[in-house]
């Protein structure tokens, strides 16, 4: 199926009654449209000449005038208007390789698509970019690009990513920087591979690309119990996590002095592993790396405390909160501070151990429906159970193991409310102002995310 076929034309948009579903968009102002990036870039201007191919195979031209930057109101057969690009790597730490067998097919898809980096903030490794694509990012000024760097030493990066092209990343990033393209970077830190001296080198190389490199996160490698046949990796211990935090903090302190920004941040998970107190909220500056779990808990706390100041009395109904083992003490602390203000607040926190991926996986976002049910069944969960919305697959109503919210709710005999990662929403939900429970038929087979997944 051609990916540039128009599926829907907005009846209130500038192309209403000018373009029909079923036609293919070939070019705009003479520029070929190969994918959604071409489309978004070339559709920006106020005066456009569209070249279309009808379902009968005839070419026709359509002139349109609209506001500069105004959306043309077209939906295409696929979100990317192209096939999604999968990765060409065999990373030693790949989480997808560590999934148990038998999960839905989309879970095993390894995307590494520059277009998704720009459109949806996904991180890319740069290893599958052709020269033409690199040049297109520069020409179309696609920015920011989110880069999974891991290591800048070419040999080490080749080894970690299992790809002979992986050593070219720093040169590509230099070209992006020279073209004014900004980058956010991620380092998945694997003890014995890219920590210690290698991490210092990587941070220094990225610092040299500031201000093009805007932020860097250091995230601990996640190891599940499904690693048979994969390279041996070591998990962080409290000691090695503390060493890495110290090295990054020291480096960040220098960056603050020299650049006016900390630049490199450890994820919350690293602090929790080390048993360290999380830095204060203002340490995280603009919170650019929230998606990588950097400063997320501190922000949640700050938002929660603000909401608590203005909260009305709770509804008095007992409730429970379920989260991963890492964040459970943190949520207990928030609940405790809320109870200090309102003694009638009747809630408790349940820490759910991860038996699906292995107990070393402690983040809330990887708690599965089966673990939730098996560990909470028979517990007094009160009138409602609050979970992090991160436990549900994006835009869907089921957990990673395909257990639906409705099934979990029926099995536990309590309504389950997915709460967004927002301290205000969490405070509201504790006090009885509840988010909607997504209906089963809201399972989004056709969301933008699923169109390429
Ligand atoms: S880039 Fe590496 S970590 Fe990401 S999906 Fe591919 S192999 Fe896995």
Notable traits:
453 residues; disordered C terminus; 16% strand; four-stranded antiparallel beta sheet; binds iron/sulfur cluster
Oligomer: single chain
Mean pLDDT: 93
Overall geometric form: globular
Helix count, DSSP H or I runs of 4 or more residues? 14
Spatial strand sequence of the major β-sheet:
3-2-4-5
How helix-rich are the residues, as a percent range?
Answer: 25-40%
Describe the main β-sheet briefly.
4 strands, antiparallel
Unique bound compounds: iron/sulfur cluster
Low-confidence blocks of residues: 442-453
Q: How large, in whole angstroms, is the Cα Rg?
A: 24 Å
Strand content: 15-25%
The tally of strands reads 14
**Which structural class do you get from the secondary structure elements?**
alpha/beta
Distance between the termini: 16 Å
Question: Summary?
Answer:
The chain is α/β, with parallel strands linked by helices and 453 residues long. The protein is built from 14 helices and 14 strands.
Describe the structure.
- By secondary structure, the protein is α/β, with parallel strands linked by helices.
- Helix content is 31%, strand content 16%.
- A hairpin with a 5-residue loop joins β4 (47-53) and β5 (59-65).
- α6 packs parallel to α7 and α7 crosses α8 (268-274).
- The radius of gyration is 24 Å and the shape is globular.
- Mean pLDDT is 93; it is low at 442-453.
- The chain binds iron/sulfur cluster.
- Iron/sulfur cluster is lined by residues 87, 89-91, 94, 96, 110, 112, 125.
